[in-house]
Amino acid sequence: xxxxxxxxxxxxxxxxxxxxxxxxxxxxxxxKVLDGITxxxxxxxxxxxxxxxxxxxxxxxxxxxxxxxxxxxxTDQVSKMATGGAGPAPAFSMLES
Length: 97
Hints:
By secondary structure, this protein is mostly helical. It is built from five helices and no strands. The N and C termini lie far apart (39 Å).
């Protein structure tokens, strides 16, 4: 895992790892890195939301998005677009303004 590889625990490295695992479709490792971050930022969380959306895990994506909103993360149009892909998923139709 990332801590055993010698990566520092800087926010930049953590965000890059979440994004890399997410883009590779490696949901378990992306989530493991995200869960290990003390204060995940919007970029990390949005990468994970997009990962869940990409692999069809819409309920988990919606749950994380809702958690971000409750924690005060910037869940603006950019965050919503991270879930978009080719079109809105059924679970995300309620996010439309």
